[in-house]
Design brief:
The radius of gyration is 26 Å and the shape is globular. A hairpin with a 5-residue loop joins strand 9 and strand 10 (about 145-160). The protein has a 22-stranded antiparallel β-barrel. A 3-stranded mixed beta sheet has the order 14-31-30, with no helix packed on it. Strands 1-2 form a two-stranded antiparallel sheet. It is about 0% helix and about 65% strand. It contains 1 helix and 37 strands. The two termini are about 30 Å apart.
Length: about 575
């Protein structure tokens, strides 16, 4: 029930790691669209994470791998339990041993939870989650370097009420504190040079309550509300000089720029919802809801209504049909102002309409089939900034391919077919195919979004017995969109003309990951698991993006474009010891 804001390590450097220790996580539910009114102030998807269940006895777990070292302790108490989890990233040790020129990325996290039943109908849970990052990174050519420091703290208290057999509710009081400092410099011949200093402070207080009342056997009423008050501070300084300019709307038109910005934004948010779920004839279940989202910034309130409707019909013991439609509204978070790109306000709330149709079929041979079609239409969108050619850079704001994208509307739609084999002896497998499209409408033209994947296939196989476990997971998707550039002759400074954005594609992406684990059991419940994991087992050099620079030493200046390859083969070994 508590919202985590950017819960990632190395968050300005592609956010590769979650701050949540896997030992703390019980279940993860992903709502890819059409989610109920319980979730507000979200426009596209929701990741709902439930903590691990209450331990039956004292649990001590030590986990060590190439990427992390972690310790977890948990134990039951009279009418409650407690959990403590701490983790340290090992990436700085790996880079020091193998590639010290890439820098020193250090990160840590800590989670503590205390749960107790204070009354027969009231359970109280207190949580603390801390993030501590000290990042020093450089690119492989030593043309970019950056230092970043992050200190985030999440504190929340959850009250679970059970006043009767038909009524239950949750109330969550939360406080989020975020502090960051990022500075860096870039000096790339033929592209440009510059430096920046980015300091941020955010404090967010929140209160959320959710209640449900079951009226008889066929009706369920849901009611809830949410309040947030956020304050922030931005201090940003930048100076850079570009040797290349892009002739494209939203690109920098200044070869030299100095910028110093200071903001103290504040945001208040109020949300409320109501929903009614009814079970009708032949098992047809209908849930209709209405949500109100209101946000205030700079003395002005914006209020939006979000109606939603969902249907579930069990046509037979093996076949279920689903349908949902809804409107979804999302305000810009206090931490999301694009100050490095010149943004200075929170802008108006965004809006999207979702239509999702689904079919689930459970075959007699143990294969589950799911067919789903979705259509998301975005009517109100805020501008965003992207690097057209290369997103794998340390300081994206200092690159000439940084452009402002301001679509009038957008649309994401697709069809997905998935198969999953369940209850097979020692073996589990899955296979899915998706045909999809994600496009913006800019100036009346439909333009691919940078993450558009026309075709996508994923598959996995898991085999296990009492002592061994082996798994393979494969992924294929259409190549990432990219853009053609042409150097304009005789321009000073050099000007690059941009063809249709994202009209081209790089080569198709293929990856295969593998895991092998050996499990040992000792007296009592002691267990030791040794594992070997390999990402990109085929060592395929997948294309991720394009690098560009100006060769002005040639007789006729030319623009050199080179393909950037994604990660190579990445092995990892480790163990998990639970005792």
């Amino acid at each position: 029930g508590f919202r985590l804001v950017s819960p990632f390590h190395m968050k300005d450097f592609l956010s590769p790691f979650s701050v949540l220790n896997p030992g703390f996580v019980g279940e993860i539910g992903v709502h890819a669209g059409g989610f109920p009114v319980t979730f507000g102030d979200r426009m596209s998807a929701v990741v709902d994470i439930a903590p691990a269940t209450r331990p039956d006895a004292l649990v001590r777990e030590v986990a060590v791998s190439v990427f992390n070292s972690a310790l977890l302790l948990a134990a039951p108490q009279e009418r409650g339990d407690w959990l403590v989890a701490a983790r340290r990233g090992n990436l700085d040790l790996v880079t020091r041993a193998l590639r010290p020129e890439l820098g020193r990325p250090r990160y840590r996290d800590f989670h503590a939870r205390l749960r107790r039943e204070v009354l027969d109908d009231l359970e109280v849970t207190a949580n603390l989650l801390l993030l501590d990052d000290d990042i020093d990174v450089r690119d492989g050519d030593a043309e970019e370097s950056a230092r970043a420091r992050y200190r985030d703290a999440y504190t929340w208290l959850r009250l679970r009420h059970r006043p009767g057999t038909a009524i239950e509710g949750d109330t969550v009081f939360g406080w989020t504190r975020m502090r960051s400092r990022r500075q860096g410099s870039a000096d790339q011949p033929g592209v440009g040079s510059g430096e920046l200093l980015d300091r941020r402070r955010f404090d967010i207080a929140s209160l959320q309550t959710d209640w449900s009342w079951r009226s008889g056997e066929r009706a369920l009423v849901k009611l809830g509300g949410e309040w947030r008050h956020a304050r922030g501070r931005y201090a940003y300084d930048e100076q850079h000089e570009l040797e290349l300019l892009l002739d494209h709307p939203g690109a920098s038109a200044e070869a030299q720029r100095e910028r110093s910005l200071s903001l103290r934004p504040a945001l208040d948010y109020l949300g409320g919802y109501g929903a009614l779920r009814l079970e009708g004839p032949r098992g047809l279940t209908t849930e209709a809801g209405l949500r109100v989202d209101a946000a205030e910034s700079a003395g002005r309130w914006e209020t939006r209504l979000s109606p939603r409707l969902a249907l579930l019909w069990p046509a037979s013991d093996r076949l279920q049909l689903r349908a949902s439609w809804g409107r979804f509204v999302q305000t810009r978070g206090i931490e999301e102002i694009a100050v490095p790109d010149g943004g200075s306000d929170l802008e108006r709330p965004q809006r999207a309409d979702h239509l999702v149709l689904g079919l689930d079929y459970r075959a007699a041979n143990g294969v589950d089939l799911r067919l789903e079609a979705y259509d998301k239409r975005y009517r109100v969108l805020r501008p965003r900034w992207e690097n057209l050619l290369n997103t794998f850079v340390v300081l994206p704001e200092l690159k000439p391919d940084r452009v402002r994208i301001a679509p009038e509307r957008a649309r994401a739609r697709g069809i997905e077919l998935s198969l999953h084999r369940r209850e097979a002896l020692h073996v589990d497998w899955w296979l899915s195919y998706q045909l999809a499209s994600a496009r913006d409408v800019i100036g009346g033209n439909r333009v691919r979004r940078a993450w558009d994947q026309r075709h996508r296939i994923s598959a996995g196989l898991v085999w296990q017995n009492a002592d061994w476990e082996a798994s393979l997971a494969g992924l294929y998707h259409s190549g990432w969109p990219t853009t053609a550039l042409t150097l304009r002759e005789g321009s000073d400074p050099a000007v690059v003309e941009v063809d249709t954005v994202n009209a081209l594609r790089l080569k198709d992406y293929i990856s295969l990951d593998a895991r092998l684990a050996r499990k040992f059991r000792f007296a009592g419940n002691d267990r030791l698991t040794l594992f070997l994991e390999v990402s990109n087992l085929l060592y395929r050099k997948n294309q991720c993006c394009v690098d560009s620079d100006l060769d002005d030493e040639a007789e006729v200046p030319r623009l050199d474009l080179s393909i950037v390859k994604a990660r190579p083969i990445v092995p990892s070994v480790g163990f998990v010891w639970r005792f």
